[in-house]
Design brief:
- This protein has one helix at about 185-195, and strands at about 1-5, 15, 40-45, 55-60, 65-70, 75-80, 85, 95-100, 105-110, 115-120, 125-130, 145, 170-175.
- The longest helix is centred in the last third of the chain and has 10 residues, at about 185-195.
- About 45% of the residues are buried.
- The two termini are about 25 Å apart.
- By secondary structure, the chain is mainly beta.
- It has a seven-stranded antiparallel beta sheet.
Amino acid sequence: LYFGINGANADTLMVITNTSSTLDTGYDGDFDTNIEQNITVACWAKGWPPGAWNPWVSKGGESGIGYQMREDGSGPDADWCVRGPTVAANGGDLPSSVGSNDGKWHHYVGTFDGQNQTLYLDGVQVATQSATGQLSPDEPAPLVIGAKSQDGSGLTSGSIVGGSYFTGGAIYDVRIYNYALTASQGIIVNAHIIYR
């Protein structure tokens, strides 16, 4: 998926709604089932969001609910944001200690297991913090790739993203798991091998 590269496709995003009554009546795409204490969000991204706090993948992530894999608004680093658990600092934000705004492809993985919140960059753990309790899923909000999801707005309020919170760049292989991957599992290890 390409989002706003060199002025083309500006303000482009992909929205995955919570239900689909027309395409598949049995489809349940709420991305909220069994994630309160275990979740992994992973994606490849190239390019850097044009503003501050712009996400590659989001489902809420503000006002104490949801999650985002995004740019850290205070520097050229990634940020894994989970809302709800009691955390040591930053209200659920976990910024990377390693910059990745260099125009190259990077693999981002954020995990939460009910005890810890961890961020991996290109297969290497770059940040972790204690985060106990439960993630507060933002059930009404759609999953949005390439922009910021508005908290609780769903599709009925007419507002999917706020202001200029579009990603820009390219995003590939977005994955969401209802369990926390470990450092030794394939997706994280393979990203390190591919990136090197």
